[in-house]
């Protein structure tokens, strides 16, 4: 039986990105998250609003996860 325990993000391999690249990647995801927030707040999504908002929510959650990973990596680098 194989061990399917997920590894902590902290144990992930370091990214080949520089610190400034990580900051730019975070900025990009924050801009996308802001755009998704604006679309979600739009009341004119029509009769499929629930489905659209569900998909936007999943995309937002994914962006937040990516932001967390990037922030943890940058934090690790800056505290070394």
Topology:
Elements: H1 19-41, H2 49-78
Short note summarizing the structure:
The chain has 80 residues and is mainly alpha-helical. Helices cover 66% and strands 0% of the residues.
Write up what this structure looks like.
It is a single chain. The chain is mainly alpha-helical. The protein has a domain at 21-26 and 52-80. 66% of the residues lie in helices and 0% in strands. It has two helices and no strands. Helix 1 (19-41) runs antiparallel to helix 2 (49-78). The longest helix is centred in the C-terminal third of the chain and has 30 residues, at 49-78. The protein starts with 18 loop residues before the first helix and ends with a helix. The relative contact order is 0.18. The mean pLDDT is 81.
The profile of the biggest β sheet is: none
Put simply, the count of helices is 2
Strand content: under 5%
N-C termini distance: 37 Å
Helix content: 55-70%
The backbone outline, from C-alpha atoms, is elongated
Order of helices and strands: HH
**Overall strand count:** 0
- Integer-rounded radius of gyration: 17 Å
Mean pLDDT metric: 81
Low-confidence segments: none
Structural class: mainly alpha
Give the key terms.
80 residues, mainly alpha, 2 helices, 66% helix
């Amino acid at each position: 039986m194989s061990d399917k325990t997920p590894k902590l993000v902290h144990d992930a391999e370091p990214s080949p990105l520089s610190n400034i690249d990580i900051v730019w990647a975070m900025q990009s995801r924050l801009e996308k998250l802001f755009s998704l927030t604006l679309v979600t707040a739009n009341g004119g999504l029509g009769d499929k609003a629930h489905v659209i908002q569900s998909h936007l929510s999943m995309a937002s959650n994914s962006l937040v996860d990516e932001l967390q990973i990037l922030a943890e990596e940058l934090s690790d680098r800056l505290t070394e």
